[in-house]
Amino acid sequence: MCTAADGPPHAVADPVELEALLDEPLPEDGSDLTGLLDHLAQDVLPLGIRFDHPRCFAFVPTTGNYPAVLADLLSTAHLSVPGAWLVGSGPTRVELTALNWLKELLGLPGHWGGLFVSGGSVANLTALAAARDHHLGGDLTGARLYCSTQAHPSIARAVHLLGLGRDQLIALDPDAGQRLDPRGLAARIDADLAAGLRPFAVVATVGTTSTGAVDPVTDLARLCRRYGLWLHVDGAHGAAFALSDRGHALRDALGRADSLTFDPHKWLFQPYETGCVLVRDPELLRATFRMSRHHLDTGYLHPAEARHDEVNLDDLGPQQSRGLRALKVWLSLKTFGAAAFRRAVDHGLHLSDHAAARITAHPDLDLASSPGLGILTFRCRPPGSPADPPAVDRLQQSVSDAVRATGQALLLTTRVHGRTVLRMCTINPATTTADIDAVLELVVRTGREAEQKPR
């Protein structure tokens, strides 16, 4: 049987080749479906990153799982829409149950609520829209939102889409651990208040994309309470740490936020298009997004308004027609049980610890950041390699390119403290310590070969 590990973790085609392969006139007549499926499976869909490959360490890899694939097939075949209760009461109840399970996994109080969305970007946008309306109403003058420079770019994109200027997002330099510093944040808030500005929200990140750093959520929550600000936690990747024994303390911290982004398509191993936004007070989502607030001059949607204890999830977010994303999570948890996902999270943590120990012990490798939620960064420094920072940076990129060219692994770079480093995300349950060891040896070998080439 063919598995993800049988092929390379990455394949790419030249744009001209792909245009010749796929750019064609609109077909007037049909073709054989079996042949078309074979064409896509063999010639098109493999061209990209194979995120479920055990030696794919790029970005935040995901494995998916077979019940989730079947859930997508089933919900699509039934045209399931968990929007209005009238349209999809069964799908809506599945989503509400899956949300309750996620809250339990993360240790959130039962009164929290929310909905499934496409991913972390829309989850951040949805939460911050509620924060904007709750704190600012319709007046955005002088508004200020705060995060660190390590926050995800979707925060800046959300600010833009919410009608705020780029100058209204204050991205502060992180501390030495790449975390948002509460003292520096408080000083900036005080200065902005003194200048007559209107701070309204803070974004804390649990699991930054570069290093997996965790902002001090509890301290930031205290600060936000003192100033009367909304605390949004972007835990797209790192909130899943709360499933593990090591991450149990995070559960209390997450519960102190006003809203939370969580991406099951990351560390809950779901297919893409499975994000989630959760809020302390679901009525604040409803105040921003409820359909009745946005009705125009037509009564077309009035018959679908919720009655009595019915729930219309399209009142809680920006989408009306919504796919049944929750069924993937529901069927996965029913099939495997929560304990399997807890073990998988622990496995990813164990792999990053193992990688860090190997890197620390190897004379050719330097750890750039400690393991953070299954993510670590390091440099390749072969004997005799140049010491000047630009040359070291170029070497890391050369090593990444050379590793990728072998077809054996995918290891990309990021920037930490202004320096180029190699980055490894180890959360794939199919990855073994042997995979880690083999890839690190490949890094060492390609690094030495790169240094032997004439400059």
UniProtKB/TrEMBL annotation:
UniProt KW keywords: Aminotransferase, Decarboxylase, Lyase, Pyridoxal phosphate, Transferase
A GO MF term: transaminase activity
Gene3D superfamilies per record: 3.90.1150.170, Aspartate Aminotransferase, domain 1, Type I PLP-dependent aspartate aminotransferase-like (Major domain)
Cofactor: pyridoxal 5'-phosphate
InterPro entries referenced in this protein's UniProt entry, alphabetically: Aromatic_deC, PyrdxlP-dep_de-COase, PyrdxlP-dep_Trfase, PyrdxlP-dep_Trfase_major, PyrdxlP-dep_Trfase_small
Coiled coil: none
UniProt family annotation: Belongs to the group II decarboxylase family.
The name this protein goes by in its record: Aminotransferase class V-fold PLP-dependent enzyme
